[in-house]
Every structure is written in C-alpha cells, then in structure tokens.
Amino acid sequence: MMKRICLLLIALSVSVASFCDNSQEEARRIFEDAYNQVFGPQGCTLHYDVNLVGVYKTEGTIWYKGKKSKFEDKKVIQWNDGVTAYGLFKKKKTIEIYDVQSGKHDKYGSKFKFTLDDFDYSMESGGENIVITLKQRSGAKGTVKQAKVALDARTHSPKYAKIKVALFWANIRITDFKSGGISDNIFVFPRGSYGEGYRYIDKR
C-alpha cells in the first residue's frame, strides 16, 4: 500500500511539474508575441502614460522600429535613426545631438534593461485581458526585477505594465497601440524645420 501511495505521489508531482512547465511556456509564448508587436521589424506606435513612482511622470507618443525610435511629450521630441539621436527641448529651443551607441540620449529608457531569458513567466486570464507576470531568475543581469503586463486577450497587444526596477515601480498605461505600417522617415531628424532660432549642442 505504501509503495502504491509513493508511486501515486510521484506521478502527481510529475504531472504538476509538467503542467507548470507548459503553463510557463504558454505565458512566455504570449508575452513574446506582444514583445514582437512592439519591437519587431514592422514597427509600432503607441501613446504612453508613465509614472515612475516618486521619481518621474510623463505622457506622450512613441514610435519604434528595430533600433530606431522617436518620442514626443510636452517638453521634448527625440529622433533616433539608429545611429544619431537628436533631442529637441521645446522651451529652450535647443537641440542636443548624441551618438546612439553611447546610450546617453536615453536617460530613463536605459534603466529598463532585460532579455526574455531573464524571467520565469506565469499568467492569469479572464475577460478581455491576459495578465503576464515576469519574475527575474537568480543570476539574471537585467535591471528589471519583476513585471506585470496586461495584454488584450484576443490580439495580445499591450495595455498596461507595472515594472519594478531596483527599488522603484514604474506604472505604464498604453493606448492607441498600432503595430506595423511605420515609415522609416518618422525617425529622421527634420533639420530644415529647426534652423534660425534654435541652438545645436553636439554631445557626440
């Protein structure tokens, strides 16, 4: 009898482990689909509302396409063509120029470093959303420690993210999301539109 009970417990533990593995694989697969909608070669655009609790608040629109990006909020517009970044500070009418490889152009974005292999994944689904939870694995070198990401249950497009970096949390609400159809021209700094009256500061 004891032998049968032990065999039953072993079989049950294997089944639970298999279920957990499958669940984690499915959660990662869904998250990767959302990630690729944002950062894939087709490009995307979205409106963001960010609150880095106790540190920084902003909202604006951003465009991504591979290594290229552009964002605009009330104070700043930045164009990144993959090689050079131009930051326009509206009030001061100054334009700072950076080498993208230096990372100095992206003060806040550079804090969110991770790879997809950094995490264990789990998910909850219900209604219109799927919520993916990411917990950093031991030994991972990324700066993102934990995250909860709400995705549209049908399309897997992102709707909301809560991300822990070091000791603070960033809350990001996402609206007006569109994946694909992003022209490379969006990321090119229109120098002709910012001539007289603007001061250029080259920080390369």
Order of helices and strands: HEEEEEEEEEEEE
Q: Give the low-pLDDT segments.
A: 1-21
**Number of helices, where a helix is a run of at least 4 consecutive DSSP H or I residues:** 1
Average pLDDT metric: 86
Tell me roughly what share of residues is in helical segments.
10-25%
Our estimate of the beta-strand percent is 35-45%
Rg over CA atoms, rounded to whole Å, is: 21 Å
Shape: globular
Distance between the termini: 75 Å
Widest beta sheet: strand line-up:
7-8-9-10-11-1-2-3-4-5-6-12
- Structural class comes to alpha+beta
In total, the number of strands is: 12
Give the biggest sheet: 12 strands, mixed
Task: Describe, in plain words, how this protein is organized in 3D.
This protein has one helix at residues 2-39, and strands at residues 44-52, 56-65, 68-73, 76-80, 84-89, 94-99, 119-126, 129-136, 144-152, 158-165, 168-179, 199-202. It has a 12-stranded mixed beta sheet with strand order 7-8-9-10-11-1-2-3-4-5-6-12, covered by helices on one side. It has 1 helix and 12 strands. Mean pLDDT is 86; it is low at 1-21. It has 204 residues and is α+β, with helices and mostly antiparallel strands.
